Amino acid sequence: MKRLTSVSALAFCAMAGPALADVTPQQVWDDLETYMESYGYSVEGSEALSGDALTVSDVVITMPIPEGEGSASFAMDQVVLTDRGDGTVALSFPESMPIAMKMDIEGDVVDMVLDYTHSGLQMVVSGAPEDMTYDYTADALGISLAKLMIDGEEITRDMARVMMTLTGLTGNSRTVMMSGVRNVSQTMAASDMVVDAAFNDPGSDDGGVFNVKLGGVAMSGETLIPDGLDFSDPMTLFQSGFAAAAEITHSGSAVEFAVTDNGTTNGTMTTGSGLLKFAMSDDQITYEVGNTDMVLAMAGPELPLPINAEMAETKFSFSMPLQASEEPQDAAIALTLAGFKTSEMIWNIFDPAAVLPRDPATVSADLTAKVTPFISLMDEEAMSKLETGEVVPGELNAVTLNSLLVEAAGGKITGDGAFTFDNSDTQSFDGLPRPEGTLNLSVSGAQGLIDKIIAMGLMSENDAMGARMMLSMFTVPGQAPDTATSTIEINDQGHVLANGQRIK
């Protein structure tokens, strides 16, 4: 993240002024070739210059798949780069460009050909040799499964089909070379993205059909690519200064599916806006995904009854260090499931008399932490030892609960707190590092919820008495009716106190 920020700042300064130099077709092709080779691809093609146009024929871009599991190649009959006479260069590509892949997947040899197509693609390159901008528009870009063979046996189109299409595209990509680092920043917008897939087993009635549509798709990203990177070695990749960050959003989605297996299960899911963000650098990875206004409906023979649910917001994010360190590093995790609602049919199974409030339910938590990682997540040997239990991944140094909210059926819990951990003391808490800190909780509607559960017959008065006693032991009454607060403290001696009373 630090390198991405610092180099991005330099790139921003370089981009602030106009690029006075022009570019030629040869310079643009050299830049494209160097860019692909920086990712570990080998590029082959025959170059021929005629007048204002450079034609590169029989282009093949190849890259081995890591760990000797196969290779992938991208072929184009020709690419034509034309000098437009104003210092810019126009690129034209064939309407169909096959991508061939050969892989060994757990002993199965897979040969696959994907057909990459476009309609109305126009691309113009401007700037200078060390600072090029690729602007493009397209009516449509598509990729589809053209051929699939497994161990020499062909999987025909009626057995499997996959197609993805982007329509109404605009975008640009800018490359700036500075001090041996290629900074690539990109933006892209599309009216729609559609994915259509189907699978059928010819030996049975099993199969599935899937259709996904996203509207208002937008993407932005930035990548730092130092010279001489070895993409086949993840351990050294990020240590060499490689970094990448991207954000993808959409304005709404719709999913339809039908799966046949001892009957057909079908369903739909729609959402409002959606978000996907990630970033990786030499020292940290961050990830965030979420959407709004999700509506889900499913029915089928494997389900006891139709499922209908809604969620106003879903969100999940985390960040964690990638490399081993002797000093504590930042980490975080957060989850939000807000405004959950289900159908009256499902409610009536558990609560036919409608005793419980059927307000939307919410669960959310936001935690940050300090951790000391003992191993690198990019070290395959260390990760294999972790799986066998030979090493421990690291130690927890501190946790902060920034916020907690649980709200359902008329009850509500909120909280926050912070703890540090003494990893030299694993005796006070049965093998766990000793915590020290405070947790603050507020509860409302708990007594009313217990009364309703008794009225539903799910809890007896005797059971309720025990629950009420536990609640009174760990909480003190709040100022409003049916509210309570609790302060749980763990001191430096390992004593646990609830509202000042020692309970351990």
Automatic annotation (TrEMBL):
One Pfam family name is DUF2125
Q: Where is the signal peptide?
A: 1-21
Q: Which UniProt keywords are given for this protein, alphabetically ordered?
A: Signal
Top-level taxon:
Bacteria
Q: Does the keyword Signal apply?
A: yes
Name the UniProt record assigns to this protein: DUF2125 domain-containing protein
